[in-house]
Design a protein that fits this description.
By secondary structure, the chain is an alpha+beta fold. About 25% of the residues lie in helices and about 30% in strands.
Length: about 90
């Protein structure tokens, strides 16, 4: 239930940013897998640090059934030099 509520809020926030400014200002998109509410995917972009500038970094967040009492697992998909993919 909580993940469904968070998904609606995330989608609404993205839509609002796009309507107001025709772009996503956060530099971060995180939405659930349409077939599994416990799995979310994220993209980080627009970083201004020299090492990461111009890059897009993707990852997956897997929430356990006990979420939010138990923390989610964060899995980078894009190698970025600091964190390694699985």
């Amino acid at each position: 239930m909580r993940l469904q509520r968070e998904a609606k809020m995330a989608k609404k926030d993205l839509e609002t940013q796009i309507k107001k400014k025709n772009k996503i200002d956060d530099g971060f998109i995180c939405l659930p897998d349409p077939e599994n509410a416990f799995t979310w995917y994220y993209i980080i972009f627009g970083l201004e640090m020299k090492e990461y500038e111009g890059g897009f970094y993707m990852g997956k967040i897997v929430c356990p059934p006990e979420y939010p009492s138990k923390a989610p697992k964060i899995c980078p998909i894009t190698d970025n030099g600091r964190f390694h993919t699985w």
